[in-house]
């Protein structure tokens, strides 16, 4: 790449040889100054060899190889540190970003300096036959609002907030989103951003299986231990408290 990238997409990956190329390609076709930062979380299935080979053919691909698997939150934080653009976004290894999404988000952010981030719409792909989620299903809103792979944000904002939680039960997506909404302006749009594929055991599929629609809302049929014993809630509070300190410290410098 002869010029600095305008936007970097961080893709954490673990054993993703079957689907990773599709995700990377969906970023590279967005615009010529898009960068892909692939963070391999100690894969054992040939993913490392695949992504290193792709990086040799395209200098827009940056590869970070981690010596130990520590989860998506840690991988995302390291990926942002390796990114060298003013805007960052995220993608799971088996999803795709919709063409035109980066142009739309960057134009909105460049023209509105008070916006810290832009969130786009999500298209659910390969929904299992035994699951039903219609256009008006309230769980669609819950999915769209709680994830970070449909968000483009200023890199400095991500860093000030402390990035993502790194403990596996901390809810790395919702932890970042809650802090972002609390301290900065994130605009939600109907512009399509992500094609999200529902695998058998991924978080979205599990969420749909353990919930049901009730009126205009939904309820849980099953809760997980970190949710019921307060572990998740306390972890999110602790993470938010640190973000509060970070933001206050940075803002005090501008007074």
Question: What are the salient characteristics of this protein?
Answer:
single chain, 255 residues, alpha/beta, Spore Coat Polysaccharide Biosynthesis Protein SpsA, Chain A, eight-stranded mixed sheet, two-stranded antiparallel ribbon
Written description of the protein model:
- This protein has 255 residues and is α/β, with parallel strands linked by helices.
- The chain has one domain: Spore Coat Polysaccharide Biosynthesis Protein SpsA, Chain A (Alpha-Beta Complex).
- Helices cover 40% and strands 23% of the residues.
- The chain contains ten helices and ten strands.
- The strands form two sheets. It has an eight-stranded mixed sheet with strand order 3-2-1-4-7-6-8-5, sandwiched between helices. Strands 9-10 form a two-stranded antiparallel ribbon.
- Strand 1, helix 1 and strand 2 form a beta-alpha-beta unit.
- Helix 7 runs parallel beside helix 10.
- The termini are far apart.
- The model has no long low-confidence stretch (mean pLDDT 94).
């Amino acid at each position: 790449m002869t010029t600095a990238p305008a936007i970097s997409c961080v893709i954490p990956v673990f054993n993703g040889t079957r689907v990773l190329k599709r995700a990377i390609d969906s970023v590279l076709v967005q615009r010529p100054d898009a960068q892909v930062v692939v963070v391999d979380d100690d894969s054992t299935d040939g993913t490392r060899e695949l992504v290193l080979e792709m990086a040799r053919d395209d200098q827009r691909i940056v590869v970070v190889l981690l010596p130990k698997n520590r989860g998506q939150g840690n991988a995302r934080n390291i990926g942002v540190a390796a990114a060298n653009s003013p805007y960052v976004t995220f993608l799971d290894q088996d999803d795709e970003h919709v063409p035109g999404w980066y142009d739309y988000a960057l134009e909105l952010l460049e023209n509105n300096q008070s916006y810290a981030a832009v969130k786009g719409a999500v298209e659910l792909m390969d929904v299992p036959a035994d699951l039903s989620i219609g256009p008006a299903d309230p769980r669609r809103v819950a999915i769209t609002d709680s994830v970070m792979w449909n968000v483009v944000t200023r890199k400095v904002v991500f860093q000030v907030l402390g990035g993502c939680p790194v403990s596996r039960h901390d809810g790395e997506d919702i932890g970042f989103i809650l802090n972002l909404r609390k301290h900065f302006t994130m605009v939600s749009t109907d512009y399509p951003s992500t094609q999200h594929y529902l695998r058998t055991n991924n978080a979205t599929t599990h969420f749909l299986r353990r919930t049901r629609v009730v009126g205009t809302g939904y309820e849980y049929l099953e809760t997980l231990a970190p949710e019921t014993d307060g572990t998740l809630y306390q972890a999110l509070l602790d993470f938010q408290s640190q973000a509060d300190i970070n933001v206050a410290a940075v803002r005090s410098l501008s007074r």
